[in-house]
Structure formats: C-alpha cells, structure tokens
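Task: complex structure prediction.
Instruction: return structure tokens for all chains below.
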Amino acid sequence: MKINRFKIWAVAASFAITAPIFAQGAPNAEEGKKLFDANNCGSCHALDKKLVGPALRGVHDRHSNEWLIQWVRNNKKFRESGDADAIKLYNDYGGAAMNIYENLTPAQVLDIVEYIKTAPAPAAPKTDTAVTSSDAPVTDPTTKYVLLILLAVFSIVLIVLARVRNTLKRIAAEANPDEYPELANKGSFMQRNLPAFMSKMNPTVLGLIVTTLIAIPLGIYGFNFANTEVGVQKGYAPTQPIAFSHKLHAGELEIDCKYCHSTVEVSKSASIPALNTCMNCHKGVQATEKYNGEISPEIKKIYAALDYNPEELPGKQFGDNPAPVRWVRIHNLPDHAYFNHSQHVVVGKLQCQSCHGPVQKMEVIQQWSTLQMGWCIDCHRNSGIDVANNGYYAALHDKAQKDLKQNQNNSKYFGPDGKVKITPAMNGGLECAKCHY
Amino acid sequence: MMNKLNIIGASLAVLFASSGCVSRGNDTGYEYAPDMYYSKGYEPYNQADSFAVNPYGMSMRVPVAGSIALGKSAFIYPMANTGEGYEAAATQVVAPPEGIDLVETRGKYMYNIYCTACHGLEGNNDGKVFQKVASLKPAWKGYSDDYIKNLEEGKIYHTLTYGKNNMGSHASVLEPMDRWRVVKYVKLLSSKGAVSTADTTLAVANTMSN
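Output:
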C-alpha cells in the first residue's frame, strides 16, 4: 500500500512538473526523447527498422493521436475494446504484445510522437566506403618449396663448376708446374682439402668422428621434431568460417563458457553451440555502429546460415533453407584415446582455462595444450584432487582416511611436502584402460 | 677449406631455426598415422558422407519429429509460442506440485551461467552485455521492479522456453527442472531486491537435474 501511495504521489508530481509544458499545448520533442529512452522503447522499436515491433517513423501518419494514446497506454484494453486496427497490428506482429504504459500521460505519449516526427533521418550510408581489402600477401606453401629446390639446384651447379675449375687448374699445373707453383705437388685429395691435423689422421677414425659430430645434432633435432611436432597441434589456430572472438565474448562481455558450451557438464563433448544460442543475443545485436549502419558481415553469416531475414516479421524467425556453419575442428585426440569433459569439469572441478589456456584473451581461438599423453600423465600424477565433499570420490576418501590412520608417518597419501595429497593416479588415473580401450 | 664446414654448420642452424614451435595458424603440422587420429565411427561434430537427406553431411541429425527424450515425457510444454500462449501460461503453467528443490544452489548456479551476462548477478539488468548494448534492455529496470514482482511464474517459464522480445529461447540449455529452479531463483531475487553475491561453487554442478 505504501508503495502504491508513493507511486500515486510520483505520478502526481510528474504532472506538476510537466504541467507548464502541457499548458502551452505544444508537444515537446526533447521531452519525448527522454521518455523514449527512459521507458526503453528502443528495446523493441527503432525509428527506421523493424525490431520486435514496427519501425516508428511516420507513425503519426498511420494513426491518429487519439489512437496512439490509447494504444501506447494500454494496448490490451484497446484491443479488447474491438478496435480493428489495433487487433490487426497485434496479429501482424505474431502476437508479440506490447507492454502497458499507463504511467505515461496522454500528453507524454504525444511528446514521444513529436520526437518521432522530428527525429532526423539517418545519414545515407557513405558511398566512398574505403575498400578494406583482404589483400594480405598470399603465402602459397608451394612457392616456398619451389624456391628451396631452385636453391639446391643452383648450389649443386656452383659446387660442380668450382670443382671443374679446380681440376682443370690442377691438370694445367701438372703440365706446366712453373706457371702454377702453389698447385704443384701438393699431395693427395685429403692433404689438399683438409687442415693438417686432420689429414694426418687415420681416415677411418676421422670418418667416424665426423659422422658422430653430424649425427648427434641431427639426432637431437629428429627426436625433438618427433616429440614436439609430429601429431602435436599446439598453436593450431585455423581461420574459422565466422571470425568469432572469444576475447570479446568471454573476456570483455564475461559470458560464461558454459553459456555456449552448455553440454560440458553432462557430456563427453563440450559442444559447439547451435546457432540459436548466437541468436539469443544477435537477434538484437548487429554491431551496425561499426559498419556504417550495415549489419556486421560476420553477424550476417549467422543470418545466412539460418536463412533468417532480420526485416521479416518475428512470427517466422528462421527460414526453411538453413546451411550449417562449418567450424574448423581444433582439438582432436587420436581415435585410440578417450577423453570426457564432464568427468574433468564436474568431478575434477577443473576450470576450462586449465587445459584451454587464457581463452578469454584469444581473438582467434587456438590450441593451447599439447594434448600429448605425457601432458595428461603429468597432471594425473601431480594435481591434487579434493576428495572430501565429493560424492564421486567417497570410496577413495574412506580408503585414504583409513590408510592415514594406520600408517601415520609413511602413508602413500602424503605428498612430498608432508601434506596429504591425493592425485588422480591414486584412483587408477594411470591405468591404461581408463583411456585406451 | 674451413669455409666448407662453416657452410654445413650454418645450414644445420637454419634447419633448426625454421622448425620452431610457434603458433601455426592454419597449418596443422605433421601427422603420424592419420588413420589413427580420425575415427571411422562418428564422433560428435564429425563430418559424415553427405547424401540426399543429409546434404551437409552432418553426423548429428535432427530426431524424428515428435521424439521425446528419455524421462522427459512429463515435461512436454503445452503452450504455443504466441501471445495467447504467453497469457495462458500465467495460469496454466505451474511448477510441479512436489516443489522445486535446490533453488539457491543449482538454481543460482544455472542463473549465474545463463542469465547474468545480461541481467546481472542480482537481476538489476546490469550485466556486461546490457552495459555494452543498452538497446537490448527490457522496459523494466530489474527484478525488483513491480513488473517482475507481479509476473506469474508460468509466464517466466514460458519466456525461458520460447524467449520474448530480444531474449531468445533457453530451452536447449536449461532442462525443464532447471528452468523451474531458475524461475524460482528469479522470484527469490525479485523478492529480496538484492542478495549476497557469495559464489556458489562448482560443487553444485554435481547435482545434475533429474
């Protein structure tokens, strides 16, 4: 009751404040703009675009002032009174009822209409749109290989030519030693081409030493290559069909990971969101302010995939001819390894970032971890799990408590720092068949 | 003479440098035995062969029309996605008679995931998305608004199921019982005006809905 009375006073007060304006009888567009914003009209209406409700420009030509006042203040009552226009409007917009604004006085409604009447038309889209070309230098991998092959061929030609020149010189020197004193009688091939300490060595020993010296770095290189490169796709950041930014959505807007990857707690897979999840926001968010009043080209791709026409009536939202977005898969475990998201997120209580890295800072999503077996094992050996208050670990919890009681000083449940530490490995987290079956 | 050894050394060094492990963009790198990496059986989101009724070769298919998920037959939502359906939901859609449990734990947890981005932790319409795109905001100011205080639970449930105005359907991410928990939690926020923002931990996630 108290609140209601307060409201009445508030309405009365607003009358009192705005009364002088009504006295003059002229609707005030500035006041109307304030009311338009204060009542969030813009969440359903734009001036020049259909949103949830119709575009408002020219509304004063379509309906009389009396009609508009009745509609805005209580469209439900108005419809029930049997006004044909009102019922038709309601049906045209798929039965999306407008809110009731009895807090607005008739004069205030007219203020809003005045604002709509006088609002400046939108600037025509600029014609000289600078072509933001995607003429990034094309890096064709074949070019690289062709260049490498050419380099190799030319090097061989160069070496052969040099040797031919040397041989010719030597022949000339044998025939005419006086003319080439530096080449005459200089010994064997090894003596001529290697430093003195090498040419004095037994050729077999020298060969072994040289081979070892070359083989060791090559071996290290090969080992590292096989270990960190082959089948390891850490850093893989493919161009996705829609340039979705995790930095914007998860970082700046702080949308929970699970909002989109909603099956992560109940399924093996964390799920790529269906496009209706995108549309929960992007029905209304079109980033037009960044693209000269046009809908963002990336958001247009969502609409295209759903065959959705933002101009169409809300009753029929998605078209009949959808075409799924072909996202490029990044994380791929080999077929012979099993991984389950729900086990790690729900039972293990891991944060997404533990494995996927600082996703909220990634403009382009990339694979953060190696996903190698050693990486799995490290974590299973070293990370402590909270077994108390976790139904999944009840048996392990009991076992550990019993063991701690019996072997107070050397229980296997003590970590290196003397504190109790229970790892996944103690619960069979290293069994082969847990992941490979 | 020593020059030749230098050349060999230099080319080895170049070989090392060019194989550095950095962000590799579109390049997946080398793969060993790719037939062990890509499952013959369908994994989630794998590509299948496309054919007449599956032109995009999706391994995930739409269930036959009228399919009901196991254990969900009690939750077939009877209302149509229309203005009439919304009005009718006010009286005809009511929470299960046995009551809704875990409102302040599971309900809050789900609310914090699916609602806070727009409506804010305490339902004041001050989530980051609403802050950035103010035009999305509804006409009411927050859950403490009389509009929400007086709004029937059935209508909130209807809105979660089908969406309303700028809000989309959250039926695919909130199971029916979770939807009710969120409805009750919204009402709780609405009646409290403001509640503590103490974090509900992930422990709640253990309690899976029905």
